[in-house]
Design goal:
The chain is mainly α. It contains 14 helices and 3 strands.
Length: about 260
């Protein structure tokens, strides 16, 4: 009996003939398109030709194996779109494996971008939660400083995730503040958000000199509004109260560890 094939249209090059069995064995979506809707041709030109070629090879091998970083997003997207659960799970395992070995800033940046994409596109928090759990005990100051060098490019929730990745290294966010205040005349909404979310009492406790430099810089902004001056006053007052409370809780002769 002759094997049934399906035409796969790709972005560049001639269409591919692929066995129906390879496509439908683990995918409800492919089964619906081919068996129920009688599609003889499936258009996959939304994906890069290289990613589709790799995807079809993975389906034949039934194993993700080692893939290049630049292939991950599209392969994972196809696993989600076509509901291939074993491949989706393999993608998560591949990502977690990279997390456990991540030491260089560019690797951390890749991981954060992919986890953020999965969170935004698919509302999948698992990858981001795993990344924070894996990296937050480490010193990510260099990566965070580079990633937050221009807060205008980040969404508020990305800033929140960065704060979680910072772990106990609070002074990195004071440096981020100073860097983003350069040539500014007033506080932007992103800077306000960062100030609201930072644990300013612990920032001050960890590096009082840097903390004071941040607030001196803000106070001297050339066109700072009265509303922002009031905002800063309330922040610093609240920080002083919180620090007083923290110090009262410390017993004599003990040292606070951060």
């Amino acid at each position: 009996m002759e094997e049934t094939t399906v035409v796969i249209k790709i972005k560049d090059g001639d269409p591919r003939l692929v066995s129906k069995q390879r496509l439908t064995s683990d995918s409800r979506i492919f089964r619906n398109l081919i068996d129920e809707c009688n599609f003889e041709e499936i258009d996959m030109s939304d994906f890069s030709t290289a990613a589709v070629t790799l995807f079809l090879t993975i389906l034949e091998d039934k194993n993700l194996g080692e893939i290049r970083d630049d292939m991950f997003r599209e392969v994972h997207k196809m696993a989600v779109v076509f509901e291939i659960m074993w491949l989706k799970n393999d993608c998560h395992r591949w990502l977690r494996s990279k997390m456990s070995l991540a030491t260089e800033d560019h690797v951390k940046s890749f991981l954060f971008d992919e986890c953020w994409y999965m969170l935004q596109k698919w509302e999948d928090r698992n990858a981001m939660d795993a990344l924070i759990s894996c990296l937050s005990p480490k010193n990510n100051s260099s990566f965070i400083s580079k990633y937050m060098s221009d807060l205008r490019k980040l969404e508020l929730k990305q800033i929140d995730m960065m704060l979680k990745l910072g772990g106990g290294y609070y002074d990195v966010f004071l440096n981020v503040m100073l860097y983003n205040l350069v040539r500014k005349k007033d506080l932007s909404g992103k800077l306000q958000h960062l100030l609201r979310k930072m644990n300013l009492a612990l920032c001050c406790e960890q590096n009082e000199e840097l903390y004071l430099e941040v607030f001196d810089t803000i106070s001297n902004l050339s066109e700072i509004s009265n509303a922002n001056l009031k905002f800063i006053y309330n922040l610093t007052s609240g920080t002083i109260r919180e620090m007083s409370s923290l110090r009262r809780k410390l017993k004599p002769g003990t040292t606070r560890t951060v």
